[in-house]
Amino acid sequence: MHHPARVVNMPSVIYVAIGMPGFIRCPIDANPPVTLVKWKKDGLPLRIDKFPGWSQMDDGSIRVAEVTEDSLGTYTCMPYNTLGSLGWSSPAPLVLKEPPKFSVVPGGEYRQEAGRELVIPCEAEGDPFPNITWRKVGKPSKSKHNVLPRGSLQFKSLTKEDHGEWECVATNVATSITASTHVQVIGTSPHAPTSIHVVASSTWANVSWEVGYDGGFQQTFSVWLKRERLGPHDWLSIPVPGGQDWLVVPGLEPETIYQFSVLAQNKLGTGPFSEVVTVNTLVFPISTPEPLVLLTPPRCLTANRTQQGVLLNWILPANHTAPIQHYVMEFRLGERWEVLDDSIPAGETDLLARDLIQEAWYEFRVMAVMDDIISDPSNVVGVSSTDFFPPPEMVEERGLARPVVAGIVATICFLAAAVLFSTMAACFVNKQRRRKMKRKRDPPLSITHFRKSMETP
């Protein structure tokens, strides 16, 4: 039933612990929910922003970061909702109290075998005298335990359920304080794995979990799965290799709902199953052709020995789908390839390899790089460094280079041959001319023809 906001059961006294965080609460009954709460301190409107460390909560309560004497006073509150308010609360004076203090705190951890007794000390003092209780963090313990008169926790017979974090809580009218400890129960079956996480694709699932307490012995795991529509007797188990906390489950059907659980086991038996996680495998992907990325190796690598070193030349790759970024030249003397130069500019197709070891066989190959993709190597060329090439300074000391000298000698020989040939030709022509002139000066010869008679005398 809808009604205006009202205050119910306002405490007659508000107790807060000095030097600690505290709350000044306004107990409200409102339907629709409260939208605004106004406060007065000592009969005057309370300006919360005037007090450092003070803030108003969503439910209208006042939170004090550290209680001091500035908090002293008498408080009243008036809540509002969309239907209005039924008025101010009764006044409640605020009283400062000392918080309880622990005189004996529990240790950080206790280890005890299952079935044995365990007593964990905890004592507190204060004015008024605090009340001590114990609570288990997380899942409550179903075993029997007692709180002794001075506040210690007693387990007469430890069980597997007693394992975990425990808190000693000391409470008085002002506030509560806590001290925590960890109880480790040895000699039990493993605890259930927690935080099961399943990532599914179309045909596989990656199952991971947080390992529970092993009970004091080495534990192993198995992953259990079934299709959701199948019955409770259709679970399949897959052992997990080693002590890993994950498993990839293959062979699943696309677009199918599966359930997964994890089970732990040690030499004393199996623990409880973990929570069941339900996932739906994905649709089988339709393959789409990836964009073509093509980079063929550089071609026709050659090696020519010069006086300065080995001159390596190559031709650009025949095909590449993006501009070449640079080239990488490698060499080897034995089995292992090593980098000679890994930043040859894309515009260059030659490289001079200097300072080679004498009397060694070198092999070279070149690769192209495009968009962080490296091509296959080019053809391999080999060259021997056995022959000695004089260094440039020796050539300069001796005179002209050997190819230049050879050219000069060849030219001189050619010219000499040409002169000799010309001289011989001139002599021959002159000799022929003299013979003709001599024939013209001599008289012609008279030639008499004799005829031998065939007659007989």
Automatic annotation (TrEMBL):
Pfam families: fn3, Ig_2, Ig_3. GO terms for cellular component: neuron projection. InterPro entries: FN3_dom, FN3_sf, Ig-like_dom, Ig-like_dom_sf, Ig-like_fold, Ig_sub, Ig_sub2, Neural/epithelial_adhesion. Residues 4-95, 100-184 form the Ig-like domain. The keyword Signal applies. SMART domains: FN3, IG, IGc2. The chain crosses the membrane at residues 404-429. This is Protein turtle like B. It comes from Dissostichus eleginoides (Patagonian toothfish).
